[in-house]
């Protein structure tokens, strides 16, 4: 069972990597994440804006910083190939909205804090790299946050965030695949469930 889990995780990481063979600019990737954390924490979380305004700012930040189509394709796994164009678009839309609300609240934990950068680590894909950060906490060990960055041409995009060794993309992929497998409505059932969660946020 343990071997199967390791193989599954390794396979997921390989599928998450692209076959493109362009080396990524490590310095540019780190600067890109510095801009995101500065905007996300300093300019949004530490501001006196209302929650609605914060959500609007986070939505703008998410749309510009994350490769949502790439992430959406990964987290849906094999179901992406069988999904219709309408299902793909609807899934990415609700997935984005749910994450905007989730991260708007999650980043509240970092209010008044500062991301400390600890260099970069290579990825199994030459066009991706990990940017390592920690966030000192008041009464706990520093939180480890690793950003997986993908470079396409001259553009940088975040394709995963790994918090305390837990990949958000792989966690979502496993959760969504299990849900679709059990749901009689497949991808449509997942979309409906995510919309329900969005309305409860």
Describe what this molecule looks like in 3D:
Helices cover 57% and strands 18% of the residues. The protein has a single domain, classed as Nuclear Transport Factor 2, Chain: A. Strands 1-2-3-4-5 form a 5-stranded antiparallel β-sheet. Strand 3 and strand 4 (155-163) form a beta hairpin. The chain is of the alpha+beta class and 201 residues long. The radius of gyration is 17 Å and the shape is globular. It has 8 helices and 5 strands. The model is unreliable at 1-11 and 13-21 (pLDDT under 50).
Structural class call reads alpha+beta
* CATH homology-level superfamily: Tgt2/MlaC
What's the CATH architecture name?
A: Roll
- CATH top level label: Alpha Beta
Number of continuous helical runs: 8
- Distance linking N and C termini: 35 Å
Q: Biggest sheet, strands in spatial order? A: 1-2-3-4-5
Beta-strand residue fraction = 15-25%
SSE string, helices as H and strands as E: HHHHHHEEEEEHH
Low-confidence stretches: 1-11, 13-21
Can you give the mean pLDDT? 85
- Oligomeric form: single chain
Total domain count: 1
The major beta sheet can be summarized as:
5 strands, antiparallel
For this structure, the CATH topology is Nuclear Transport Factor 2, Chain: A
Number of DSSP strands? 5
Q: How would you sum up the global shape?
A: globular
Helix content: 55-70%
Radius of gyration: 17 Å
In short:
With 201 residues, this protein is α+β, with helices and mostly antiparallel strands. The chain is built from 8 helices and 5 strands, in the order ααααααβββββαα.
Any key phrases for this structure?
single chain, 201 residues, alpha+beta, Nuclear Transport Factor 2, Chain: A, 5-stranded antiparallel beta sheet, 57% helix, 18% strand, globular, disordered N terminus
């Amino acid at each position: 069972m343990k071997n199967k889990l390791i193989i599954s995780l390794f396979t997921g990481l390989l599928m998450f990597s692209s076959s493109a063979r362009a080396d990524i600019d490590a310095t540019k990737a780190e600067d890109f994440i510095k801009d995101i954390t500065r905007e996300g924490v300093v300019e949004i979380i530490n501001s006196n804006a209302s929650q609605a305004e914060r959500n609007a700012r986070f939505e703008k930040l998410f749309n510009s910083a994350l490769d949502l189509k790439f992430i959406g394709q990964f987290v849906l796994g094999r179901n992406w190939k069988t999904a219709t164009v309408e299902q793909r678009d609807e899934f990415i839309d609700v997935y984005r909205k749910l994450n905007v609300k989730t991260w708007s609240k999650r980043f509240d934990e970092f209010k008044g804090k500062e991301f400390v950068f600890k260099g970069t680590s290579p990825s199994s894909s030459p066009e991706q790299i990990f940017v390592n950060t920690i966030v000192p906490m008041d009464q706990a060990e520093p939180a480890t946050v690793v950003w997986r960055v993908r470079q396409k041409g001259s553009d940088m995009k975040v394709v995963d965030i790994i918090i305390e060794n837990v990949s958000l993309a792989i966690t979502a992929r496993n959760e969504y695949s299990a849900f679709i497998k059990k749901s009689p409505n497949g991808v449509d059932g997942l979309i409906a469930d995510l919309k329900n969660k969005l309305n409860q946020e």
